[in-house]
Amino acid sequence: MQALRIISEEHANLWRIATSLDQVADEIDAGAPPEPAFFNAVFDYIEQFVDRSHHPKEDDFLFRLLRLRSDKAATVLDALQQEHRNGPGQLQALRVQLLQAGYSPRVAPVFTAAVRLYTQGLKSHIRVEEKDIMPLARQALSAPDWAEIDRAFLDNNDPLFGASAKAEFRELFHRIASLAPESIGLGGHSAGQLLAGAAPANTEVLLRVENMQSCYGRIQALKGISLEVRRGETVALVGANGAGKTTFLRTLSGVQPMSAGRIEFDGEDISKLRSDLRMRRGICQSPEGRQVFGPLSIEDNLRLGAYTQPKHQVEGDLDKVFAMFPILKEKRQLPAGTLSGGQQQMLAIGRALMGRPKLLLLDEPSMGLAPLLVQEVFNVVKTLKAQGMTILLVEQNAFAALAIADRGYVLETGKVTLTGTGQELISNEQVRAAYLGM
Ligand SMILES: Nc1ncnc2c1ncn2[C@@H]1O[C@H](COP(=O)(O)OP(=O)(O)O)[C@@H](O)[C@H]1O
Ligand SMILES: [Mg+2]
């Protein structure tokens, strides 16, 4: 019954989008202009993903088999499938109303009313499927039925359900998150399954830190930290505000003096190396608070990230970063200061990637972002991880960071107090109480 989990996850995403649309409609009613790019991104996503992939999953598999196995289902399924068929027409109407609202602010309330009607319909549709249809399917469908459905849903080569379609849909979702007003959030959202222990335990150690100490005057901020990152691993360093996370990253990248300890990177002792040389070795950081250069263009900010790199590779790398963050490409000539907080975070990560990191250091990438964008940032980290990047992720947002990490370290006032796999730490009572608020 993997299929039901997949459908429920898709419902959860749609529900969050519906809730966000309602919030944005409220803002428009309160005087904000309707942002056509955001709404069109949402409509594109629903048209492409929901109509092309989500509805066929239900219509052609789940509902078709349920009709065969249960007499009770037909009436409800007829209504649901009629709603599926009406979907594209409703979106078309919304697009026209959006256009009209753009021409004349007086028509905006007509558009927001239509948006609310649409989201109400969407939510009640999802509710019926979750509350009525899924329980019925659990009862009525046979094991071979589930096998058939699961096989179809999990077929990676399927043009609509498979890997390349998923990448396309994720791109569309990414656009929504990039274009969404800062004020809206989609709630805690788990976008995918965790690959537990993705990096094999015996792969080579890329970074080995032993007994790192560092002081601000007489105050010892790091009291002897030891930590390892293996090639391909995502390691989370979590801890409360003031625990020493940023100091650790700054000492690692060489901008903060180390008073004792040893750093070995890629087989070399770099303890005494200057910071620009550490960057050249492949330790690249997206700093706390993003620190993009506001007056410089987005493209020039990215180029700055490549200053230690040979000139001939820069254009190609720029294209790769733009492929990953299309919104940065669209706005490449604009000053970085015009980007939203979430987009600036993407820029800061993109700038670090321009240095061709062997180890990517991320300092609190989710800090200060609305929940929708927080999730989007973690999706970016997941994507980089899936591409094989080695990542050291520093976060106060312990739950989200540990959920995507292979392993984690808990830092308290300059000392490591706990370490384990991401899953172990998430289920550790002490961690749950202290950091996850559970
Ligand atoms: N520039 C500084 N001067 C003096 N103390 C500092 C400075 N930066 C950080 N500290 C202190 O070092 C400790 C660790 O800070 P920091 O590394 O920023 O923690 P985190 O990133 O985990 O929030 C804190 O007690 C903080 O007050
Ligand atoms: Mg910090």
Structure description:
- The relative contact order is 0.11.
- The protein contains 16 helices and ten strands.
- It has two domains: 2-179, Four Helix Bundle (Hemerythrin (Met), subunit A); 205-436, P-loop containing nucleotide triphosphate hydrolases (Rossmann fold).
- The model is unreliable at 185-201 (pLDDT under 50).
- Strand 7 (359-363), helix 13 (371-386) and strand 8 (391-395) form a beta-alpha-beta unit.
- It is of the alpha/beta class and 438 residues long.
- The structure holds adenosine-5'-diphosphate and magnesium ion.
- Magnesium ion binds at residues 245-246, 288, 364.
- The site of magnesium ion has 4 residues, from helix 7.
How are helices and strands ordered from N to C? HHHHHHEEEHEEHEHHHHEHEHEEHH
Please state the CA-atom Rg, rounded to the nearest Å. 24 Å
Give the tally of structural domains: 2
CATH homolog superfamily of the largest domain:
P-loop containing nucleotide triphosphate hydrolases
Number of strands: 10
In the CATH hierarchy, what is the architecture of the largest domain at level 2? 3-Layer(aba) Sandwich
Number of helices: 16
Mean model confidence by pLDDT? 89
| Largest sheet features | 6 strands, mixed
Can you give the helix content as a percent range?
55-70%
